[in-house]
Amino acid sequence: MTREAALEGNDTSRRPPTGIAGSDAERQAANRLAEDLRERGRTASVEPISVRLASGWITSLHALLALAGGLLAIEYPLGGAALCLMAAFSFYSERALGNPLIGRLAPNRATQNVLSPPPGTDWSEVEVILCAGYDLERSQPVGEWLSRRFSGRLTIDRITFWGGMVPVFLAAMFNVAAIESVAVQVLQLLASAVLLAMVAAQVDAYLADDPEADEQDLEASRDMLAVLDELHGGSEADPSVAVCLFGAETRSAAGAAAFFGQRGNPIESNPALVNFVRGPGGESEPPVLLTAREGDLATLRMSFELGSESPLEPDPAILRRTTCALLGRRRGLRATTVVGRGERSTGLGTDLVEQVFSDSEANEA
How do residues 219-236 score in pLDDT, each as one tens digit? Predict the structure, then answer.
């Protein structure tokens, strides 16, 4: 049974714990997480927002524009090269820098962030922000296969840009320079084939059924809440710790982008940010990692040094996606992501928060 069918039933026990970004199941998950925070003695609010969700058809549109530019360059070299450059620049701006151009054509969708303390209250004492996403990632069969086969080194975005858009632009520029050879034709042919393959990958993802949600899809947010329990031990909530549970986190951290980009952003000081992402399973004692770099087309150095004093000795990781930690890092915050699950993830998160508090006390002294 699909998640949509479960939602249509009257039996609440059959409702999924979360859902894809913009779905009713995601909204219900936000309300439940806010209630979990209130039960821990924290004030919390569910903030509805409108975001543009990164989607496969936007990637396909960029790929098709680049492909059209390559074909146009055969007869009109300058016009074709300009179209290729525009597609590549827009794609890189959106996927690497978070500044959509052509992507602004995507319709807005409703999602929500769970914030504690709520906006409009005093965040001046906040020293660390604990973050996690809670939405369900959409099916992406080709992307999932690439991740398993190449351990994240090859992604759809990287193949589309470096294997398709850049070579087809180079072929167009050879046409502008009136350089005609079999090598140029082969370059354009291969690049065009790559772009068509990436469009086919997005069509495949569109036709694929979304995975059914289970409690493990909320494991990152549960680990983050467990860190709160470790820090507070059931006592009154510490005002130096803020909590942000972001909607649409799997869609290029759209909820976090709205939070950091909004006017009247509550962040007043320069706190550290610790994000939680569910790590791989299937092991009796799963490893816990801490990101040293994050991003896909362009990676950014993260605050791995926050875990330098942890007895868990986390290994550095490169996370090939846009996360709330990456967005926070772009805004000058010390930020990193814990990639793990269970007690080791909770333990490392607690160590990071205590390290932030220790650094703050040392600076005050």
Answer: 999 999 999 999 876 555
Report the predicted TM-score, pTM, of the whole model to 2 decimal places. Answer: 0.89
CB 130 within 8 A of CB 227: yes
Does residue 185 sit in helix, strand or coil?
A: helix
Is-contact 224 130, C-beta < 8 A? Answer: yes
Distance in angstroms (rounded) separating the CA atoms of residues 358 and 360: 5
Q: How far is CA 118 from CA 38, 95, 165, 241, in A?
A: 12, 30, 43, 12
Give the separation between CA 241 and CA 126, rounded to whole angstroms.
6
Q: Where are the alpha helices (DSSP H) in 218-302?
A: 219-232, 254-261
Tokens 């997005």 belong to 202
CA distance 201 to 48: 32
- Percent of the chain whose predicted confidence (pLDDT) is above 70: 93
- Return d(Cα 212, Cα 18) in angstroms, integer: 9
CB 241 within 8 A of CB 231: yes
Q: Are 21 and 228 contacting, i.e. CB atoms less than 8 angstroms apart?
A: no
